[in-house]
Structures are given as structure tokens and as C-alpha cells.
Fold this sequence. Notes:
The complex is a heterodimer of chains A (160) and B (133). Chain A has 160 residues and is of the alpha/beta class. Chain A has helices at residues 18-41, 84-104, 110-113, 126-139; strands at residues 2-4, 10-12, 65-69, 75-77, 80-82, 116-120, 143-149. In chain A, helix 2 runs parallel beside helix 4. The longest helix of chain A is centred in the first third of the chain and has 24 residues, at 18-41. Chain A is elongated. The N and C termini of chain B lie far apart (66 Å). Chain B has 133 residues and is of the alpha/beta class. In chain B, helix 2 (80-93) runs parallel beside helix 3 (109-122). Mean pLDDT of chain B is 80; it is low at 36-50. In chain B, a hairpin with a 2-residue loop joins strand 3 (67-72) and strand 4 (75-77).
Amino acid sequence: xxxxxxxxxxxxxxxxxxxxxxxTFQLIIFFMVVSELNRMQQEAKxxxxxxxxxxxxxxxxxxxxxxxxxxxxxIKIYGQIFNQAQLxxxxxxxxxxxxxxxRQANLEGAxxxxxxxxxxxxxxxxxxxRGILRVIQEAGFERLQFAAxxxxxxxxxxxx
Amino acid sequence: xTSMIDVVFLLLIFFIVTLQIPPDEGTLQAGVPKAQGVGxxxxxxxxxxxxxxxxxxxxxxxxxxxxxxxACDNQQLHTFDMLFAKLQAKYKYNPKARVIIDCGDTVPYxxxxxxxxxxQGAGYRNISFANIR
Lengths: 160, 133
């Protein structure tokens, strides 16, 4: 595109691309962060069970702790593999931190109401779950949530 | 400038295409029974279970994870729908009862969740597990 200069000559007019590039970069960063967060919190290998009564929380408790259990019983928290002893230690530390938080931040009942979310594969055997429930009990947590898909069409065959 | 915009758009398209929107995930609530002898100082008026009977649900699967037995208070049932109907019938008379689910070693997580789903669907809010020690 050419425009006339006041002095009589002409110069090239190019559209200002800066805002578009800014927005595009913002979008890229957004998608990168979202996909990374999803990967860290939830293990992609898991196929959850189906429960139509499952309650989808819009604002889940920020103090919740998610435990992923794969089909063979492998325990993962934030992508890191834990054995039973490590899980016990981890939960004890978490519970102590919550107790400290109760005292310092005046969050009455934080340790009692903070839920443990168990995300296990639908075919994971109860013998693998039992030990985790025992560890949760011993650490002093009282609220337990079992994660499940609420839409039966997600899993090809709902009940084994 | 044009080549940079090309690359940026390619990156954007890549991330949009590969982004997986996870299906809706809900949760079912259950209580963790307190460890025996570890600070269980529940006041009598805080423990409603003293006046309401427990409902026992038994789940058993065989080694190949096929359903073998569902029982509710010693009555054998064949499907989780029957368990739901049974629990719903009991709820009318005993709405504050505690449902205790007893799972065998080979019960898959889906079985446990289906039993929880039936209990919660019937209206029970106090659900717990047997033999986790």
C-alpha cells in the first residue's frame, strides 16, 4: 500500500503486527501452562470408574491432596512414584502442615476437612487400595473422595 | 517478521490440536474410620451411630475380576441396581444408618465405586469401609 507524503513523495504503510503477536504469544503460553498442569495433577494413563452420583465441584477444596493409583497399584502424586512407607511419611507431613496452618492462619478444622482425593484406575484391585486407605487413616485424615467419571459414555463398559 | 508469525501460528495450532479436554470428573464422599485407640474421644451425643444400625454391604469378585457376590445385610443380590433398590428401601426406615462396605482383595476399584454410587444415590451420607487393617 502506498500513501502520499505531505512533501509529495510516497512511503510504504505496513499494518502494526505487535498487538497480534502479543495476543498469540499469550495464547501459546496459556495452552502450554494448561496442558502441563493437567499432566502434573492427573495421570493420563488412568481410566477412572464411572459413577453417575459423582459430584462435580466447581470450587474444589484448595487443600485437597490427590493420590493417583495405576492399575498395577503404583502410587503417584504429582507424577512422582511413592511406595507405602513414603506415602505414609508424606501424608504425616501433610497432616502436620495442615495442623500448623490451623494454628497460624486461624483456619479452624483445616486438617479435618482437607480431603484426600483417590484417583485409581477402574481395574485396580482393592488389595492395592486397602493399604492406601490404612495409611490415610493412620495419618489422621478424615475425609476421603473417590474420583470417577460422571458420564458413562466416557468408558466403553461401565461395570466390570 | 512474516516467518516469525508463521512459526508462532504453527505453535498455536499445535497446542490447540494437542490440548485434551478431560471428561468431567466427580467425586463420591466417604469417611475414613478412625484408627482404633488413637484419640477417638467422640462425645456420646456426637456419635449418631449408637442409635442407628449399620448396614453391611459385601462385595466379592473372583481372580479374573468377575462379580461373584453382592450382599446387603446377608441377603444376596445380583446387580448394583438391586443393591441400590435394597438400600433405597432401607433408607426410608433408617436414613442416618452407616453403610459399611466390605470389599474382597480382588474387587476392582469400579466395583467399590459402584457400591458407593448405589449407597450415595439411595441417600446415605455416612459411608465407610470394613477390614482395611
